[in-house]
Amino acid sequence: MRIGIIADSACDLPNDFIERENITILPVTVQIGQAVLADVRNEEATMNFLSGETAARAFEAETTPFTVQQVHDLFLGKLVHDYDYVFCITTTRTRSGIHDNAQQASFTILNDYKAVRAASGNNTPFSLRVIDSQSVFAGVGVPVIEAVRMRAAGESPPRIRAHLEAIASNTHAYMVAPDLNYLRNRIKKRGDKSVSFLSATLGTALDIKPILHCNQGETGPVAKVKGFAAASRKLFDFTAERVASGLLTPTVNLCYGGALDEMRALPGYQHLRDVCKDRGVEVFESFMGLSGLVNVGRGALVVAFAAPPHRFG
């Protein structure tokens, strides 16, 4: 059975991994003033877009996911020909409309695919499952990596589906953002209350950085640390402890809103890599996509993994 995997462009994974595993990307369109770019995870295009006046107004960005019709057309135009079963793994529905759009499109796709496949001489069934990752940024990549791994192992779609749903509810994404004023302005525009005005003001004045946690679609602060470097070390060290305690998948996924060499120079990074190597855990690293950058600002660090329930500390 030919199994396809789809993720939206807010899913942070290395581009070479996406290309090698033939992962289809659902673009998110970002508009800042009159400037518009479809995010297809192109680092150079992203950095060119976020320059000059556009960069200064990035917190005002409007993001638009693929519509129901666009998802429908993508499947019928290509995916129902290339695959027999497709997993569409999306950013948590609490933060993006892409999950609901894909879910709505799936109903019409399953009604319309037979004639399309029959026209090319294929009368076998086609199936589609939309999975809510319940996470953001690098967190979305954790179940995507698992889908790739299980596909390579020859697992059946029902087993893959059940596993992905279990992994999604146990995926934890932690983030440190360097610019609280940017983050506060952005979430205010989105109607979010994850970081209050007072916290942003005091945090900026005192150089206090919150560590934010996303699990099961809910996001909130779990720690406050003075200085971005110290907060990054705390996050890396905590992740190393989780790895040593045992993860649910052999994966740690990192993304960073800047050059990856900057991330690799942060304190605690090499220790985490050493622990992962000792435990046979693969580390993925990627440049944060455009939709992530406009939501949390440049220089943000995100670490994600699947693990049993735990407390940060």
TrEMBL record:
The keyword rRNA processing does not apply. PROSITE patterns: DEGV. InterPro entries: DegV (IPR003797), DegV_C (IPR043168), DegV_domain_contain (IPR050270). GO terms for molecular function: lipid binding. Keywords: Lipid-binding. It holds the Pfam family DegV. Gene3D superfamilies: 3.30.1180.10, 3.40.50.10170. NCBIfam families: DegV. This is DegV family protein. It comes from Thermomonas fusca.
